[in-house]
Design a protein that fits this description.
Layout: E1 9-13, H1 17-28, E2 33-37, H2 40-49, E3 54-58, H3 66-76, E4 81-86, H4 91-99, E5 104-107, H5 112-133, E6 134-135, E7 138-143, E8 146-149, H6 153-165, E9 172-175, H7 182-191, E10 200-204, H8 210-218, E11 219-220, E12 232-233, H9 235-238, E13 243-247, H10 254-266, E14 268-270, E15 277-279, E16 283-288, H11 292-297, H12 303-309, E17 312-315, H13 326-341, E18 347-348, H14 350-358, H15 364-378, E19 383-384, H16 391-394, H17 410-424, H18 429-436, H19 440-450
Helix pairs in contact: 2-3, 13-15, 17-18, 18-19
Length: 453
């Protein structure tokens, strides 16, 4: 049997001693560390203390069904490839195992050539998905133009976490300031998951009216309330078998939080005004620009829901903490916007790039993109120079003193910048919200919070 390269350790899980011993012997002869487990629970226990590159997993075992073991392995050990083995093959079970993330499906008794081919597939599988997703300047979502841009160390760690969690069905909580790209991360997880060919449904919890939110999420039947003139499919039903993304989940009321918790626990729901339960198979990803633990302390967010949602947390750093990525982002957005506007791509002078890199970007990546879009529309130039940059970026003193000898809190900095942008837009909140990279409702809440007149 040919050396399968970077498959160094294998755990063989089968209740038949002859099968276990035969496979382990064949692997050991080729220098692969082969261990054996007689059942599913033993295998899961072993993986907790000694992870392996590959799991050869029998489907029918006395203590735990192999498919249940597969589900747990994909959730808890996403880097471990799994090949199913069975003496009772059916098309349905093969398809089901593949959908759950099994790399291959071997039918007993199988030849060493079959095992070799499966191991080779596992070796390729360990590197191909990452090579496919990682491109020159970032992580591909679903096309070469749809990327999360970044080469800094924090972003590379985030890319690694995305690719590890994507093949699983674990819930993910994405945190970070407004404009850092939380929805892009959710899209990247979906695009690199086993659900990539299904629906990705995103709901901004801050933009939905509370009284209509339950109907929007769960749907309703005709006549269930005043104005329900026909049966409506809710977002959950539309996302079934796909991925559901809750943006700004901190805005959900405690009532909706309780119902969401039941959906996650029971994997079923009922439309408003209906008694028939609908089975639900979705992957839930959430995002928040606020600290949910603080919301828990205040009693406005359920602690049990928080732990259900944050099985895998991903925190996105603000743009000011990954300045290395700003020149790459600038180049990416200029090229992208130039194609969109059917204009020649512009160069950026070194001085202008230095100013863009050193600016604090309170609105993060979204603000950077909108700023460059404004420059491309309004400035008639072949090279973006310092003079072409907006005054609020080039101005170092006066009303927008971003930093001084006396450090200020992030909240104070945010308050000053919001007040500055509102002054520059003459109080037009829609325009100010666009510059800040947040929605109008969030801006109104911040104006009220900081007492900005």
């Amino acid at each position: 049997m040919a050396d399968p390269g970077n498959i160094h350790s294998v755990l063989v899980v089968d209740d038949e001693a002859a099968v276990r011993n035969g496979i382990c012997r064949a692997l050991s002869e080729k220098g692969i560390e082969a261990k054996a487990a007689t059942g599913g629970q033993e295998a899961l226990n072993r993986l907790e203390t000694a992870p392996v590159d590959l799991l050869l997993l029998d489907i029918r075992m006395p203590d735990m069904n192999g498919i249940e073991v597969l589900k747990q392995v994909r959730a808890r050990h996403p880097d471990t490839n799994v090949i199913m083995i069975t003496g009772y093959p059916t098309i349905d079970s093969a398809v089901h195992c593949t959908k759950l993330g099994a790399l291959d499906y071997l039918v007993k008794p199988f030849r060493l050539d079959d095992l070799e081919a499966a191991l080779q597939k596992a070796r390729v599988g360990r590197v191909s998905s990452r090579k496919h997703a990682i491109v020159n300047h970032g992580l591909k979502i679903d096309s070469e133009d749809h990327l999360i841009i970044g080469q800094s160390r924090p972003m590379k760690r985030i890319f690694d976490k995305i690719l590890k969690v994507a093949p699983t069905d674990s819930t993910v909580l994405i945190t970070g300031e407004s404009g850092t790209g939380k929805e892009l991360v959710a899209q990247a997880i979906h695009a690199n998951s086993l659900r990539k060919d299904r629906e990705f449904v995103a709901v901004d919890c801050s933009s939905l009216v509370e009284t209509l939110l339950e109907s929007e999420l769960f749907g309703h039947v005709k006549g269930s309330f005043t104005g329900a003139h026909q049966t409506k499919h809710g977002f959950f039903e539309l996302a079934n078998h796909g991925t559901f993304f809750f943006d700004e989940i901190a805005n959900l009321s405690l009532n909706i939080q309780a119902k969401l918790l039941r959906v996650i626990q029971e994997r079923e729901f009922m439309k408003v005004g209906d008694q028939q339960k609908i089975n639900l198979d979705i992957r839930i990803i959430s995002a928040s620009n606020s600290e949910l633990t603080e919301s828990i302390r205040k009693g406005i967010f359920r602690e049990d829901l928080y732990y259900r949602l944050s099985v895998v947390p991903i925190h996105l750093p603000p743009l000011r903490e990954r300045k290395q990525d700003i020149p790459i982002l600038v180049r990416h957005f200029i090229d992208k916007l130039s194609r969109k506007m059917k204009k020649s791509s512009l160069d950026v002078s070194p001085e202008a790039m230095d100013i863009l890199t050193e600016y604090a970007w309170p609105g993060n990546v979204r603000e950077l993109e909108h700023t460059l879009e404004r420059i491309l529309i309004l400035e008639d130039t072949d090279i973006i120079r310092a003079a072409n940059l907006p005054a609020f970026i080039t101005q170092r003193q006066g009303e927008l003193q971003m930093f001084s000898e006396i450090p200020v809190s992030l909240e104070e900095l945010e308050k000053k910048y919001i007040a500055f942008v509102l002054k520059r837009t003459r109080g037009k909140k829609t325009q100010a919200a666009r510059i800040l990279g947040i929605n109008r409702k969030t801006l109104t809440a911040k104006v009220k919070k900081y007492g900005i007149s």
